[in-house]
Amino acid sequence: MITKNEIEKVIEDSIITEYPNSGQKKVFLVRDVDLNVKIVKVVKYGDERILREIEIVTENRIPNVPEIYDVKEFVDSSGIKYNYIIEEYIEGITLTEHLKKNSLNIVEGLKLLDRLLNITVVLENIKVVHRDIKPDNIICSSNGDYYLIDFGIARQLDKSSLTMTQALIGPHTPGYGAPELFQYSKKDIDIKSDLFSIGVVLFEALTGQHPFLTGDEWDVNEIWYRTRTVMPKDYLIEGDRNKQLISFIQTLMQRHTTRRPATAKKALEWLHALIPSLGLGGE
User: Which sign does the torsion angle of CA 131, 133, 139, 145 carry?
Assistant: First the structure.
């Protein structure tokens, strides 16, 4: 893979930080000549999943998803061709990092839930399923907002799949992916798969616990088994009158797709209907 020094010469910006390798990507935080801070991702040229990720983000206005400013090509000293992608930098930390310190309170949780559901409404309209909504892919910005990142395994429902139909397991993160993702039931994969993941994320963010897992699972097979068979835990969230919010989150996490909200829009409408009844005086 191309070195940090080679990258710095190509992009002509100063590298502030090199992040740990993520799959086939190298990711850098850079400062340009105008002192603007941006993210630069470097990937092998022609990676089909990366090209789809770029297409999804650049061709659609998706709220609370970092903007892609530019995509360029270059060849390194070995003759290997790369793309580098220049993205908006969101100052903040991942939800994973945040939850190591504190769970979200109900007001913060409702804001996160609203942002994620608004994103999925747009994704549903453009026939995209993110497939990897998890705390690692959510940025808690320094201004108190939330952003969804990494469309690297997103699926465009109106385009040919990049995963072989014969595959026994579909792309996802165990513990956050819906049963239809790891069982790779293509006909059942739609925005309701993302609603499942949102439910898991919100439960974990508000309670500090995973809804299905204990942390003592032996291997990924046990994680899949518990996700597929264990009922979501019950929990009393401070400020959740009559357990309306936890009931909504549990509905998002139903193992059967038909028991989840029928659409992302319906889920968002349900959320907006229950918020006034919580008596929180706004969002």
Answer: positive
**Which strand (E) or helix (H) includes residue 244?**
helix 244-252
Write the pLDDT tens digit of every residue in 56-79. 999 999 999 999 999 988 888 888
Catalytic residue among 13, 32, 34, 132: 132
What is the pTM for the complete model shown? 0.90
The backbone torsions φ and ψ at residue 138, rounded to the nearest 5 degrees and listed phi first, read -120, 125
Q: Tell me the per-residue pLDDT of 179-219, one tens digit each, with 9 for 90 and over.
A: 998 877 778 899 999 999 999 999 999 999 999 988 887 78
CATH superfamily, with its number, for domain 92-278: Transferase(Phosphotransferase) domain 1 (1.10.510.10)
CATH of the domain spanning 4-88, picked from 3.40.50.720, 3.90.1150.10, 3.40.50.360, 3.30.200.20: 3.30.200.20
Q: Where are the alpha helices (DSSP H) in 12-159?
A: 48-58, 95-101, 106-125
Q: Is 194 a catalytic residue?
A: no
pLDDT in tens, 3-51: 777 777 777 778 899 888 766 788 999 998 888 999 999 988 878 888 8
